[in-house]
Design a protein that fits this description.
By secondary structure, the chain is an all-alpha fold. The chain is built from 10 helices and no strands.
């Protein structure tokens, strides 16, 4: 039974990844607005029903790994070593999110597509900004709960906003200049290091 559940989960993840990669390719080839859910499903050789088992809309495909990336950061904060310094924990959480982005969204082109749509599509821009803001708020709240003596709500939000903002700005600059995934990833890591150095954290 456990083995069967493992196979099902692997199959589910393979289908999800195929939908993301297919959507990224079609968004690039046809344009985001000209690509519909039916197009993605057909090109991935699945039914629309299967698509909707994984994603509610094509916008959710565009932002597909965002929630999982936030969950990764939250897990690292929750599982921190006893007495781990705040700076180290925040750095580990942010670097893990960057590494995850570098392994998926940069190679498959989804990050570059989001960067273009941030400029070209007000609706998508609003959705991306809302997603980023929500993720920052969740990370800030987790840090505040982990370090209640060091962080109040405002300070936690400011600290997380500074680091995440720096990383996002670096990524946008690289993607708009059509830099390679490797260069973009390095710039994001560098931006996180610079932001962390400027913060008054223990």
């Amino acid at each position: 039974m456990v083995e069967e559940l493992g196979r099902r989960e692997r199959k589910k993840q393979q289908t999800r990844r195929a939908l993301i990669e297919t959507a990224a390719r079609l968004f690039e080839e046809r344009g985001y607005d000209a690509t519909g859910v039916a197009d993605i499903a057909e090109a991935a050789d699945v039914t629309k029903r299967t698509f909707f088992l994984h994603f509610a809309t094509k916008e959710d495909v565009l932002l597909s790994d965002g929630p999982a990336r936030i969950d990764l950061a939250l897990r690292l904060i929750d599982e921190r070593a006893p007495e781990a310094p705040l700076r180290e924990v925040l750095a580990a959480a942010v670097q893990a999110m960057i590494t995850d982005t570098a392994s998926a969204d940069l190679p498959n082109g989804m990050a570059a597509m989001r960067a273009r749509l941030m400029v070209d599509s007000p609706a998508v821009q609003a959705r991306i900004l809302r997603t980023v803001f929500t993720g920052q708020a969740r990370i800030a709240e987790a840090l505040r709960a982990a370090y209640p003596e060091a962080l109040d709500r405002t300070t936690a939000a400011s600290v997380v906003g500074a680091v995440v903002g720096a990383v996002c700005a670096a990524a946008m600059a690289c993607l708009q200049d059509d830099e390679t995934p490797e260069t973009t990833s390095a710039a994001m890591h560098r931006a996180a290091e610079i932001a962390l150095r400027t913060l008054d954290l223990a």
